[in-house]
Amino acid sequence: EFYLQQIRQQQHLNAYIEVFEAEALERAAQLDRNKPIEQPFPPLFGVVVGIKDVLCYEGHVVSAASRMLECFKAPYSATCIERLMEAGAIIIGRLNCDEFAMGSSNENSAFGPTLNALDNDRVPGGSSGGSAVAVQAGLCMVSLGSDTGGSVRQPADFTGVYGLKPSYGRISRYGLIAYASSFDQVGIFSKNIEDAALVLETIAGADAFDSTSSPVPVPAYSKELKAPEKPYKFAYFRDAVEHPSLDPEIKAALVNKFEALKTAGHQVEAVEFPLLDYIVPTYYILTTAEASSNLSRFDGVRYGHRNKQPVEDLADFYAQNRSEGFGPEVRRRILLGSFVLSAGYYDAYFTKAQQVRRRLFDQTQLIFKDFDAILGPTAPTPAFRFGEKKDDPIAMYLGDIYTVFANLTGLPAISLPIFWHSNGMPFSLQVMTNRFEELSLLQVSASLV
Ligand code: GLN
């Protein structure tokens, strides 16, 4: 009842696309009726969770914030949602985002943007903007998002909450509407590290329905957060901190933090990373290629919006359905993706980008031979104003420079909201560790905040 009231009071933020009001109350009542007499309670007993509208929840609409799926009801639940329910959670509603998780500002939602609760003229980030604002404004306890190229960490950074993207394969993608399958990962928004750890250990782990989910065992993260104090070896990319697009106040805050860590006995070293300017192009070539394939199923026959007007032939029917169902950014990416995969361009773009991706991964492995974690910014600027970048897709894409690296390499990464800008907005320190080292990621993070 408390959260439903908060949601009503903050309706102008447009964080939820749909609130499951009656159902959430019934679920809460049912949990109360069946309350275990003795401890331990199920780990998320009565925890109120909001879910990004790209996660299937059986019997509920899942729209991907698109007209294309406006009326589509999920026939089954995502594995992560099943696991939340088994752990006693209450799913309170589905959260706004950029259409098909494509965007960095929530301005691409077919249902209007979510507003940043700290400054309603500023974007909440994207694509999981609704999930970030729901936690920021206290409209649920924790929320789920998806992170293909920063969509959990960047909105967490813009709204001042914690945003965790686990390793690729750590959480099953079964029931997550695909954007770019080799990048997509479910992520968690929370007010602190403990909550993120608890949700992660509940939903992570192998799943027979997703062959890319990892069999690596899942530790009890929340119980092992407090690691024995020891000096850590931190790396940061010199080219990232020196990058001309980085806001000077963010740079200064990072440099100060590095100095403070050194004073506290840790090692903090700059490593060269000359590939930095290639990662945004590599990301957009590979993800649009995968998107053009993944989104081909939304043709109005198998899935999605169906045009009611007379058509010439089948090709025209598809074209009508897709032109009406998809917004401009999604159409742009499908075109880009089809282009980079087309005969004659495939090797120049797609194959090349895959080679860069491999190089990035190899370089990371070298770094983790010598270091425990990589530190850096999450985004080059704090939350920008609505409209500032909307008509300049390249400027919008370049804002992803610090986040897409973890998705290209499959690393776990977290956004820690520990800084404030003089413009009144928060910003984060981003931490990355090697693949499947979420435990050390969370332990290191606990020592950094
Ligand atoms: N800004 C990234 C993009 O537009 C974020 C995508 C994501 O992580 N879902 O592709």
From TrEMBL:
<protein>
    <recommendedName>
        <fullName>Glutamyl-tRNA(Gln) amidotransferase subunit A</fullName>
        <ecNumber>6.3.5.7</ecNumber>
    </recommendedName>
</protein>
<keyword id="KW-0067">ATP-binding</keyword>
<keyword id="KW-0436">Ligase</keyword>
<comment type="function">
    <text>Allows the formation of correctly charged Gln-tRNA(Gln) through the transamidation of misacylated Glu-tRNA(Gln) in organisms which lack glutaminyl-tRNA synthetase. The reaction takes place in the presence of glutamine and ATP through an activated gamma-phospho-Glu-tRNA(Gln).</text>
</comment>
<keyword id="KW-0648">Protein biosynthesis</keyword>
<feature type="active site" description="Charge relay system">
    <location>
        <position position="52"/>
    </location>
</feature>
<comment type="subunit">
    <text>Heterotrimer of A, B and C subunits.</text>
</comment>
<dbReference type="InterPro" id="IPR000120">
    <property type="entry name" value="Amidase"/>
</dbReference>
<comment type="similarity">
    <text>Belongs to the amidase family. GatA subfamily.</text>
</comment>
<feature type="active site" description="Charge relay system">
    <location>
        <position position="127"/>
    </location>
</feature>
<keyword id="KW-0547">Nucleotide-binding</keyword>
<feature type="domain" description="Amidase">
    <location>
        <begin position="1"/>
        <end position="442"/>
    </location>
</feature>
<dbReference type="InterPro" id="IPR036928">
    <property type="entry name" value="AS_sf"/>
</dbReference>
<dbReference type="InterPro" id="IPR004412">
    <property type="entry name" value="GatA"/>
</dbReference>
<feature type="active site" description="Acyl-ester intermediate">
    <location>
        <position position="151"/>
    </location>
</feature>
<dbReference type="InterPro" id="IPR023631">
    <property type="entry name" value="Amidase_dom"/>
</dbReference>
<dbReference type="Pfam" id="PF01425">
    <property type="entry name" value="Amidase"/>
</dbReference>
